[in-house]
Amino acid sequence: MSQRIHSSGRALGRLHLLFPALLLLAQVLPGTLPVKPALAGEETPFSRQVVVDKARQLSQAPFAPAQGEVPQALLDLDYDAWRDIRFRPDKALWKDEKLSFQVQFFHPGLFYDRLVDVHVVTKDATERIPFDPALFDYGNNHSLPEQIPERFGFAGFRIHGPINTPSYFDEVAVFLGASYFRAVAKGQAYGISARGLAVDTALPDGEEFPYFKEFWIEKPTRKSTSLTVHALLDSKSLTGAYTFVIESGRTTTMDVTATLFLRIPVAKIGIAPLTSMFLFGENTDERKVRDFRPEVHDSDGLLIKNDSGEWFWRPLDNPENLEINAFSADNVRGFGLVQRDRDFAHYEDLEAGYERRPTLWVEPVGDWGFGHVELINIPTDKEIHDNIVAFWSPRDPLPVGVPQTYAYRLLWYNGGFTHPPLGYVSATRTGDAWGGGQRFIVDFQSKALALLQPPSKVEGVVTCGKGAVVAAQNVEKNPHTGGWRLSFVIRPDQAPSALEKVLPNRRPPVDLRAFLKINDTTLTETWNYAYRP
């Protein structure tokens, strides 16, 4: 298994040694984390409105970046030394109370240079959890506890629950680094991450990374099936109040409500941003690394459900240059980064377990209005880097000083219930075509398609944008999958110019779209691809 670490300023990539350490920390031992009374002036009783009011008040003051809160000795730790600081499982929050959830904490240091305050909310009071070096085993870092200031905080926290077996509390979700968080469903390994918000992603002036600076965790009852977490977001351009209602199981769900307050105008806002990794797959023409594995990715495609009912599938890629694609999605009904391929033989990685990585699906609550789903593919030659970003972005800039609320559900799962009602793309393969150009093989399958047998008049509809033509196409039954296979050849419609011969990347990619139909009935989602002549 493997784990990414997200810093307060960027996604830093996975380090394979971390996840086994996290599993070790999940061992069940006796003890309870001490909790002290609330700080003076802290508001009670607590409600989500407390966080909204804090975000509003914070937005009316200039941004004050956290600096100098973490001793330099902690920031100078290398990864192995930081990993040697381990939370004591016997000190987990609610350890001895027989509740459905427990909480453990991360120590500041290494990349994590911002302190996070965490509060516990009960029906009677709101209490801040004080930092105490006794909560951690410092391993070989013997001198560090002496350098911890009296008033200190955590780097983040993780939530544990009986997700796989009733008697053992496994890790369910993690909030760590900037506004990053991740979760797993039953039987899964960590992969894709989510964020609270994306600001100016892939713009020339650089991305801004908001961060969660304060959390409130509502204490569950013994009958609770969900855990509610509130978070205060802060950044140079804006603030936000977030609420997460988390329920784990065969599908882990998070009902999210986010209220944003802009301090200054923002060029690009990304709502419900998702971050994943795609190094190479079955559609990759040329690998950037020599590797024994057939495929390496946490997600293999972007899926969008439009307001019209159309389902849209875009296979992910690892391009030579940064690629930004915007797909019109007014009142979008859902989008996500999907790991459709669940066959171990397609990965052959006993450690990473890519076939067990979650799909993460976003379901908006209500109408989000005019906007688009943006997909960003960043070139990479290492699987430790998150190089795929997807989010929904409103068409019009959000107003300064006027609260904007977005509600949505996040679903972390390994099944296929978000497949379109009929056929979906199960594989995309490419290669050189005889006579020039590129051949595409797209397999569609579903239970409905399996019922269609020759001589059913299943047809493929292939279109391409300016710069290329469809040279040949064919549709046939695939007896090995039960689905139908669409194959076609795409060729440039004109010879490259002298400049394009020298700089081939100057030639823009051509948009391809394809789906299957029978008579006037659409059978499948729409497949989309960027063909590079």
Automatic annotation (TrEMBL):
Q: In which pathway does it act?
A: Glycan metabolism; osmoregulated periplasmic glucan (OPG) biosynthesis
Task: List the GO cellular component terms.
Answer: outer membrane-bounded periplasmic space
Primary localization class, coarse: periplasm
Q: Does the keyword NAD apply?
A: no
Entry annotated with the keyword Signal:
yes
Where the record annotates domain Glucan biosynthesis periplasmic MdoG C-terminal, the positions are: 46-531
Q: Which biological process annotations from GO are given for this protein?
A: beta-glucan biosynthetic process
- InterPro entries attached to this UniProt entry: Gal_mutarotase_sf_dom, GH-type_carb-bd, Glucan_biosyn_MdoG/MdoD, Glucan_biosyn_MdoG_C, Ig-like_fold, Ig_E-set
Xref: Gene3D superfamilies = 2.70.98.10, Immunoglobulins
Q: Please name the GO terms that the record assigns under molecular function.
A: carbohydrate binding; catalytic activity
Mind listing the UniProt keywords for this protein, alphabetically?
Answer: Periplasm, Signal
The record's subcellular locations are: Periplasm
This protein's name: Periplasmic glucan biosynthesis protein MdoG
